[in-house]
Design a protein that fits this description.
This protein is an alpha/beta fold. It is 50% helix and 22% strand. It has a single domain, classed as Response regulator (Rossmann fold). Strand 1, helix 1 and strand 2 form a beta-alpha-beta unit. The two termini are 20 Å apart.
């Protein structure tokens, strides 16, 4: 089975690396981490992401711009905000988004 592609956007390199690692702990998922809006938009256009995870530090303006872009490119994309809270919560948020 093909892995589910997940785009993770954050502003803090250490936290982003941790979230990507936690997502990749699930053998069915493959996370791509991006620190900037431009990087995220570039990655989004090259891979078939099923889910976008917005991490801490992404301000409202960026969130609005990114959501507008993602939904215009792929109306059925799932966008989830993740504000921390450990790997159990992270997995639950991802599972919930993927099945809804």
């Amino acid at each position: 089975m093909e892995k589910i592609q997940i785009l993770v956007i954050g502003r803090h390199p250490e936290i982003l690396a941790t979230v990507v690692r936690l997502v990749n702990n699930n053998p069915d998922w493959n996370a791509t981490g991006c620190l900037s809006d431009e990087e995220a938009i570039a990655a989004f256009s090259t891979q078939d992401f099923k889910l976008v995870l917005l991490g801490g530090g992404v301000d409202e303006m960026s969130e609005y711009k990114l959501n507008e872009y993602f939904y215009s490119e792929k109306p059925n994309i799932k966008v989830v905000q993740h504000f921390g809270g450990g790997s159990g919560l992270l997995s639950a948020e991802i599972f919930e988004a993927l099945v809804s």
